[in-house]
Automatic annotation (TrEMBL), chain A:
PANTHER family: (3R)-HYDROXYACYL-ACP DEHYDRATASE SUBUNIT HADB, 3-HYDROXYACYL-THIOESTER DEHYDRATASE HTDX-RELATED
Name of the protein in its database record: Acyl dehydratase
Family: Belongs to the enoyl-CoA hydratase/isomerase family.
InterPro entries the UniProt entry points to: HotDog_dom_sf, MaoC-like_dom
Pfam families according to UniProt: MaoC_dehydratas
Lineage: superkingdom: Bacteria
Residue ranges of every copy of the MaoC-like domain listed in the record: 14-111
Annotated transmembrane regions: none
TrEMBL record, chain B:
Signal peptide bounds: none
Domain FAS1-like dehydratase span(s) in chain numbering: 9-137
Family, as annotated: Belongs to the UPF0336 family.
Record-given protein name: UPF0336 protein GCM10025867_39600
InterPro entries reported for this sequence: FAS1-like_DH_region (IPR039569), HadA-like (IPR016709), HotDog_dom_sf (IPR029069), UPF0336/Enoyl-CoA_hydratase (IPR050965)
Gene3D superfamilies (alphabetical): Hotdog Thioesterase (3.10.129.10)
Upper taxonomic lineage: Bacteria, Bacillati, Actinomycetota, Actinomycetes, Micrococcales
Amino acid sequence: MSAAVAGLEVGQIVAEQDFTLTRDSLVRYAGASGDFNPIHYRDDVAASVGLPGVLAHGMLTMGTAVQPVVSWLEGDAVPAGGWVSDYQVRFTRPVVVDPAHGAVLTVTAKVGQVDPEANTARVDLTVTFEGATVLGKAQVRVAWA
Amino acid sequence: MSVNPELQGRSFPSVSPYLVGREKIREFARATSSTSRLSLDPEAARAAGFRDVVAPPTFAIVVQEATLQQLLAAPDAGIDFARVVHGDQRFSYSRPIVAGDELTATLTVASVKSLGGHSMVTAESVMVDGEGEHVVTTTSTLVVRGDE
């Protein structure tokens, strides 16, 4: 049986998707995650510590950005049973969420490395907001049993 | 107030076990724009061989939160919550988290560094299941912004 990763090529784009985060998204994520740091919902607190505005939780950006990869793994393009075994990011730029218009994240997921022996692949994410990347070294390790 | 460098190497007591609930997984999945059938639909998860719904890749942050609270609340830590910015995050799994798992997390402060008036605290939480088997290690680097 050939490795599940056999059909993957380095550089191949496996998913692209836009997400709009609103202040509602931040409140919902605060509740779901238990992270109630007020810089994610209070303009006055954000301003008092020198931030340009209310920021999305870094973890909301991280959690959202991996979803196109999860959808790809559950789709027909790859063998079933693939899962995210490792996922890391560096938060390099804050995502300021406008109270009226929110913030649009653009996610591109590209194959960075393929390991047929281990039956794993590394998928690199590019996540941009207002034309600039907001995550550095955003790497997803996907594995098949 | 600055971060206490003596935190480095400190391990905190394991937090009481976190029972992963199906609805918590679904709530978290929806909050991160997931459309995963494995996370949202118990039947789909069972059909794929799981006991119940499967947590999204960053779900372990929910369990990590209780361990980070220990660190932030430590009277000698010197960490001002409003000045904390998340620097890096990593999740390294041995297997996916599934509803019904009872996870016990233990936090260790891997390093405390100073950089240009800011402090960087790297905390590692190791999570094991009810059988004591490793499920995931979460690593967070927090940047604590100094007074300017």
